[in-house]
Each structure stands twice: as structure tokens, then as C-alpha cells.
Amino acid sequence: MKLGVCYYPEQWPEEQWAKDADEMVSLGLQLVRIGEFSWSRIESERNQFTWEWLDRAIQVLAARGLNIVLGSPTACPPRWLIDECPEILATDEYGNPRKFGSRRHYCFSSRRYREECERIVTVMAQRYGGHPAVVAWQTDNEYGCHETTLSYSKSAADAFRDWLAERYKSVEQLNESWGTVFWSQEYQSFGEIDPPVATVTEANPAHQLDYRRFASDEVVSFNQLQVKIIRHCAPNADVIHNFMGFSTDFDHHEVGRDLDVSTWDSYPLGFLEQGWFSEKEKQAYLRQGHPDFAAFHHDLYRGCSNGRMWVMEQQPGPVNWAPYNPAPLPGMVRTWTWEAFAHGAEVVSYFRWRQAPFGQEQMHSGLNLPNGDRDTAFDEVLQVAQELEELTITGSTIAPVALVWSYQAQWITQIQPQGENFSSLIWAYTCYSVLREIGLDVDIVSPQASLEGYQLVVCPCLPTVDESFPSTLASLDVPVLLGMRTGSKTENYQIPRELPPGPLSSLIPLKVSRVESLRPGASEAVVYEGKHYQVEQWLEWVDSDLLPLASTEDGKGVWFHHNKVHYLATWPEPGFLREVMLRLCKQAGLAVGVLPEGARSRRLGDLQFVFNYNNHAIRLPDNGGRVFRLGQPEIPAGGIAAYKIND
Ligand code: GAL
User: Fold this and answer.
1) Cα separation of 572 and 525, whole Å?
2) Nearest-angstrom CA–CA distance, 163 and 176
3) What is the pLDDT of residues 120-143, one digit of tens each?
4) 331 CA → ligand 1 middle, Å
5) Looking at the chain, which terminus has fewer C-beta neighbours within 10 angstroms, N or C?
């Protein structure tokens, strides 16, 4: 468990570097990420390379024992490159090029840009690949940030046509798969097919889904290009990329497979403000973030690269990009850091060492103020560094619950939400939250991951499933929850011939004959074990001979089970969802805990961590004799405690 920081030597006078590096060391940092936006300083015009400053920066850091994560600078193609080959710019949905002047203005599909990336990454990797202090390489920076996964450039259109030809082999096959007979959309050749944009009303959903798959594959192959070069020149270094919060435009499982570590950038307050959370939650968690935000992403990204995960950028204070940008509660930066470690992070690195006095992010805080004085997070990091030295954690743990999540599920439900408020991401997050509230540790995994060893499997919403998925689930012999819309589409975005849940009806004999979506505020009462609850947003009409566990007042079953497989045909209010999860846990033989509202726990080895996301103190239920390694039973607002588990 190491601490790190993001640093931009090119933004500060060179005389300051040594002092900065000394202070990083005395703070207890071990890792420094540099370089990811530095192209114009490395190559100010074509083939005019200025490496000396970067050599010296690396030397200053390395001389003090700091390890370096070197970023490839491809998120910011410089002005001269854009002027030389403007076709590398991404194109927006209205056909306009995205302009130079911020960042991420390139198109993933530009073959020309790929050549330029290959060139710059090669020279950089050749120069520093063998440097002993450069222990990791970050490819680019935050793929997809600022809505940049989808581009509608000529290069993208051409590459899309090739991608379709490869996938379908014949245009007749494509017509059949997409159902283009609908509205006379039949094509005679792949060359006739455009990206699904600027159509009069919504384009064919199968066409849209393939564009999303194609765009995701473009991110994967763009990343692979850099990974290949870096691995060749720096065989001993880790190759990483920094993913974002609530980012679903490309398949992170696929990109993560090519990396050694999936890292991510954790900004809990920014994402609370700009996220879908209720006004009540935004008020209650203003300075802490939503209690499941960071954990959800730790658990998701841990599953993208074989269990290896880092936080590459940790929010240290107010950010500059959310509608409102409050400061964290005192102690919160320490809590976020420990929470990341408890969820398996190998590294937590803060963004950034010092607040910039210029540029787009001058209102974004860092560990230090623009004048070099310490900002408030500095002392919290110091505290964590000391605690890390003192704490020993032994043993390993595995989460008992798998929550199965797919990026494709999100694309399918975004293309046809069928109800404005429907989001499979929010629904998956809601299921995750309820599991976490009852004290369970969760792995978020892809449908291709092994599900062996879990005691409970929750699939909140998987509209398409691979052919083998039903038999994989059948072989597990543990409780499985299938949520609404699971099995509702074929690979080609069609309703399955046997009706939803398609092939999964082999696990539970039922079929969905109609779906309704409900506007906000509308709900239906359901009865479960004699108690009344509400269900919202989504209601499926299910035909089955099974006796439902819960039904609407007019007798429509909303929750069915057959042996260990459950089907939930609606979006329950939180109290009802909790009942569903509790029943599943009971069937799984899983012990659930009672945590105070707003608190979350996680086990790491022989330690049980508890995080208080409330803006008031809480007291853990008295359980005499607990040995606390961090904190005490009384946990302050935004604080943590960790006690030893003897078993
Ligand atoms: C991230 C990005 C950083 C910086 C930061 C500000 O999205 O990777 O470069 O912009 O946000 O919060």
C-alpha cells in the first residue's frame, strides 16, 4: 500500500523541483506520476525533441528514491500537429471538428493520429523504458473524458464500415441481423452505411448498438497500440490507464484486460454534485461524497485487471468542474484513502501536488497552495503515511457476493431506455448500495468472469447474455438474482423468439409479455409477506405457473423464484429491495450485519474497516473486547475505524 501524487514539473520553475521532491519524500510519498500532458514541451515542432528537462525531472525524483509513473502524452496533441494534419480531430454529432484549445481533441479512429501516437510513444519508451525509477507507464489520460469516445469523422465512418464487413461478412447478413426491412432501411453494400447520427428520428437500435461496440473496440485497439510499444521497451514496468467515475462509453473490462493495473480517478464530491443523486443525498453527503461512490468503482475496477487496482488521482479538496465544489470534511481525504486500501488499492495517488495558478484548473485544489504553502489535505496524507508504517495486515479475503455488470447492458438500455429515468447503471448501483448497507463485500465482475466461489450472484440487468451464461449460472448452485430486462434482447438487438428472459427461461420458467415504464412519482403497491411496499419506474407483466413471492395488488407477480434462481420484474423502493436481498442472503447462508445509516464496512485480511460517511459521529454497536487498530468505536463525522477480526 503506497501513496503517490500527480506532478507537472513542466509547470514550475526548475529551481523548485528538488524542494518539491524532498517534501514529497518527507510526506511519505513513494510514487509520482508525470508527463501525461507534456507533448508540446517534449516535441515543440516535428522531430525537434527536448528531452533534457524531462531527463532532469526524472533524475531529481529518482535521486530521492521516488518511483515514477510516466504518462504517454497522447491526450494532448499539440497545435503544430493539428495544423499539419487536421484530420486527426474528432468530429461531433453535427459534423463539426472538435477544436484545439483544451484537451482530448483527437479521434480514436484516425489512422494518422495512431501513427503519430506510435511515433511519440516509441521515442519516449525507448528513452525511458530502461530507467529503473520508471516503474509504471500510463497510457494517455482518461479515455472518454469530456465525451470523447464517440466521434463521427470520416475516419470513424470508414473504420465502422470495415468493422461491419468483418463482423457480418455479407450485407445480407447485416440486413437480417439489424432487421433493416423495417422502414425500408435495407442496404446493398457496406459502403452505404453511415454512422447512426443526425437521422430524422432514432436510428435503428441494432445500428446504434454496433456503433457503440465499434467505438469501444476503437478505444481498445488504440490502447493496445501503446501497450505493445511500452511492453517491448519497458518489459518490467506495469502498464496502467486511469479510468473515470461512472464512465460507460467503452468497455473497461476489455481495455483492462490489456493492462497490468486498472487505475481510476476518484472525485467523490464532484460526482455527488454532478451525479443523479437526490437533493436529500446531495445535502447529507455534501462534503463526504455518496457512501458507495468510491467503493463501487474500487470493486468494479479491481475486476478489470485480474484484481490489481490503484487510485491514480484522489480528490484532495474542492475540484473545479462540478456545478458546486465544496471542500471535504476534515479527515475525509484520509478516510477516502483508507477506504481505497481496504478495497484492495495498491496505490493511492493524489491529484495534484500543487494547485496551478494558471490554466483551466486554477480553481482545483492540490496538496499545496499555488504559493507552496500546505493545503489542508497535506496533514491528512501525512497521517495516513504514518499509519501505514505502523499497521500490519495479515491474511487475504474474498468477497462473498458477485454483482455482474456489463458495459453492453448500459449501451442497450441507453439506446432504448423505454422510460426516461431508466438507467441500468443506476439500477446496478442501487443493488450494490443495498448489499453494502447490509454489510456485504461485493466484487463487480463482467459476465465473462468466473463466478466460482461466490455465495450469491446478482445480475441486476443483463439484456444480452452469452449462450453459455445460463449453464454457468445453473452449475453454481448458489442463489442467483436476475433483475428486470435480463435476457430481453438478442445479440442483434432483437426480442428473443421465446420472449424475455430468452435463454434464461431454462433456469426459471416464466416469460415477460409486456413492460411498462412509470413516470417519476408514479408507483404501484406490492405485497410481500403481508407487508405493503412500492415499486417504481419499471413493471413487467410476467406469465408463469410459479407462485410469485410478491405481487401487485391486482395480482401481477413481480418477484418469482424457482429453486435458487430469482427473477425480479420491477424496480423496488429501497426498503423492498433490502427485503429481496435479505431473503437471498438467508438462502445463501450469508450473515448480514447491521451498520448505522451512512456507514459502510469492508474487510481486508484480518481487519474490519468501518467508514462513517455521515456528517455526524456514530458509535459502533458495543461488541466488547474488539481490538481497534485505527480509531475507536465512536467514529467522528467522515472518519474511520478498523478493528481486528479473530476467526
Ligand atoms: C481528471 C484528469 C486530470 C484533472 C482532474 C481534475 O479527470 O485526469 O487531468 O483534469 O480530472 O479533477
Assistant:
1) 10
2) 17
3) 999 999 999 999 999 999 999 999
4) 22
5) C
